Amino acid sequence: MINALAKKVFVLLLACGFLAGCNLRPAPPKTANNKLPRTLTVMAGNTAEVTAATSAESARVNYRYRLTVLQSYYVRTGNMDKARWVERELKNLDNAQTFKWSGIPEITQPTGESLSDADEHLLVEYVLGARTGYLNSMRNLLAFYRDKAGDSYKAQRVSNVLDRFDPVMTYKYFLEAEMPAATLRPVQVVPEAEKMYKQALKLHRDGKGLLGPLTTNYEKQREALMLFLNLVNRYPQSTKIALAGFYIGEIYKEYFNENIRAVAWYKRAVEWDANLTKPARFQAAVVEDLRLYNKANAIELYRQVIKHEQFNATNVQWAHNRIRELTGS
What we know:
Largest sheet: 2 strands, parallel
Radius of gyration: 23 Å
Number of domains: 2
Strand order of the largest sheet: 1-2
Shape: globular
CATH class of the largest domain: Mainly Alpha
Strand content: under 5%
Structural class: mainly alpha
Distance between the termini: 45 Å
Low-confidence stretches: 8-15
């Protein structure tokens, strides 16, 4: 029993440390004595530094406030899927910065606002603007420490915040706003898109690791995801958009637990190319069935698998079986 437990612990250590199998953001830089200070102190009397740091912290507080307002709106209106998105983005923001500022004026968030007549689009717009303002202010602060102050340690701390802030865990809160139109068609061979697709696919495959989940390289999966997203946005007529859409769904599903996004991208892939020889409908059906528990959606997608994805006999048989189990007939 002890040996078995020790083996499991060893595997976990390998996975989360040596083999990079855990989705962990970069660790904060430590001081020369190997400590991690919980505060970052602005130099007294340095007006330029106080201004830059205060601007960054004000932007962070405003961004966080806007997220909490949006979350309250979704909870109030019963939209728990979007409320969970806000929760993930809030956690992303809170986990990014591992220190508190010292030596700047105290910054408090605005007083709460009424949600009785709130407009979702406007609340989302506030969040998107606050996020942009926060990231820009942090980049400006990084430039200040690198170029003007010449403070390498503080530059490392600010850079680490930006590295720890995960772009995957940010949302536009309306799926259609994240995705190109369903009416696009992959009709044009675009050399730049072909190159981008090959690069993204290689990153995706390399990121799987030799031992599967234990050796997943999440940074490579993030890079692959961003390249695929960039491809469909920059080259909307490329012959690779449907394939890119499928792999966007795969990465969201397999590595980042973004189930709603994954289904949307699987569906978009076959909207762009109904003859796509990738199991996009099947993967969407499985997510709806076993993760989102949307029985009606799963049944409809399984039926589409039987009709359109005969290239994978195993998936077709699974679809038949699940339809019988879900319908009781």
